[in-house]
Specification:
Layout: H1 3-20, E1 35-43, E2 48-54, E3 59-64, E4 69-75, E5 80-85, E6 91-95, E7 104-107, E8 112-120, E9 126-133, E10 138-145, E11 151-157, E12 163-168, E13 174-179, E14 201-206, E15 212-216, E16 225-232, E17 238-244, E18 255-258, H2 272-278, E19 284-287, E20 293-298, E21 303-308, E22 313-319, E23 323-328, E24 334-339, E25 344-348, E26 354-356, E27 365-375
Antiparallel strand pairs: 1-2, 1-27, 2-3, 4-5, 5-6, 6-7, 8-9, 9-10, 10-11, 12-13, 13-14, 14-15, 16-17, 17-18, 19-20, 20-21, 21-22, 23-24, 24-25, 25-26
């Protein structure tokens, strides 16, 4: 980022907060240690930002973004979060969620753009970011050195087109990567260029050597089901969710499970009514704190579904219009969920209890797709 670009980005901050009635990041200085959540959003005037709030929904800080945000990653060992741009943009912003320290912007290199997700190494030094090598129709994982101002040091092969989200498994070395399989190019904005030939996959990659350890695909009849988002349980069971690009009248599974070494992907049945309600599109995935329950949001259908990890079966759903962001609360079965219509709720999939969360002092926003839970 040039000095002029950085100055312009930071100078615009004051105007953004004045217009939207939102607190400065410095307003969080007195926040107590506890569980917090990060979610990109848009203010009523169209300003793009990310909010940090506690488990009661109280906004403790707001950070401006240079464009629409998507997912975020927490840096282990540091009070630092990186928010990523939505595809096909190039920026990422690193910030301390509870201080007034200015955010640091860094960008994907020429010929690459972010897909909106990344994950840190266990020691917090390396950031692995999903990227599109768009001129070569190739998926890659950018490797950034956080200790050197997020300097890009290299990349790993994603092994398929469209790596959208990735998680680090409990060995601290293996990356599970959701390769969506959809070819795009920024010159065509968000147009999908290979729907007839797409080949999504769930890949396991060695983050140190870059070696492909294992790779799995759904049955060929489901090759148009793009594997997009995933979450890992403590035992490394992966819950993944999909977006179907095939005929609109097809009802296909949208949620699956896998664990390294067990063979084919498991695609639980959910029943015709549930699949119709999900409208062939899942937007986000999260595990609860116990690793017993997977939440899979379906914003187009206005529903969030819940699944037993051990039994790999459907548990039930929660109606939430344009509800997409989900993250684990501090209790078993508990999740916070956010909506593009500005709603924020807590729901427990095991007890069925739901409670709205409101901060009457905060200006209304439209919440974006993903929520990150973190303990500070």
């Amino acid at each position: 980022m040039t000095a002029i670009d950085r100055r312009g980005f930071l100078t615009a901050t004051a105007a953004l907060f004045a217009a939207s009635g939102l607190p400065w990041p410095g307003g969080a200085a007195a926040a107590e240690a506890g569980r917090y959540f990060v979610n990109a959003c848009a203010a009523e005037d169209g300003s793009t930002l990310t909010r940090i709030f506690d488990d009661s929904g109280h906004v403790v800080a707001t950070v401006p973004l240079p464009g629409r945000g998507h997912g975020a990653a927490r840096r282990p060992g540091r009070r630092e979060v990186v928010a990523f741009a939505r595809r096909p943009e190039h920026f990422a912003v690193a910030f301390d969620p509870l201080s007034a320290m200015h955010p640091r912007r860094f960008d994907a290199p020429e010929g690459r753009h972010f897909y909106g997700h990344g994950v840190f190494s266990r020691d917090g030094r390396w950031l692995f970011a999903c990227e599109n090598d768009y001129d070569n129709a190739r998926g890659c994982i950018g490797v950034y050195d956080a200790s050197a101002g997020y300097r890009r040091e290299g990349e790993l092969e994603a092994t398929d087109i469209g790596p959208h989200e990735l998680v680090l498994l409990s060995d601290g070395r293996t990356l599970a990567v959701a390769n969506g399989g959809i070819q795009t190019h920024p010159s065509r904005r968000r147009e999908k260029l290979n729907i007839d030939t797409m080949q999504p996959s769930l890949a396991y990659i060695d983050s140190q050597s870059g070696a492909l350890l294992e790779k799995y695909r759904a049955p060929q009849a489901m090759h148009q089901a793009s594997i997009r988002h995933l979450a890992a349980a403590p035992d490394d069971t992966i819950g993944f969710v999909m977006q179907y690009e095939g005929p609109r009248n097809n009802l296909v599974p949208l949620v699956g499970f896998h664990r390294r070494g067990e063979g084919a992907l498991t695609l639980p049945e959910a029943g015709e009514a549930t699949l119709k309600a999900m409208r062939q599109y899942c937007g986000s995935a999260a595990m609860d704190v116990s690793g017993r329950v997977l939440a899979a949001s379906a914003p187009r259908g206005g529903t969030i579904t819940f699944w037993s990890v051990a039994e790999r079966r459907y548990l039930g759903g929660l109606g939430l219009g344009d509800g997409c962001g989900v993250a684990a609360s501090g209790e078993p079965g508990g999740f916070l969920a956010s909506s593009g219509y500005g709603k924020l709720v807590h729901h427990n999939a095991l007890t069925g209890e739901t409670a709205p969360l409101n901060d009457p002092a905060a200006a209304p926003v439209a919440w974006d797709n993903h929520m990150l839970a973190l303990t500070l």
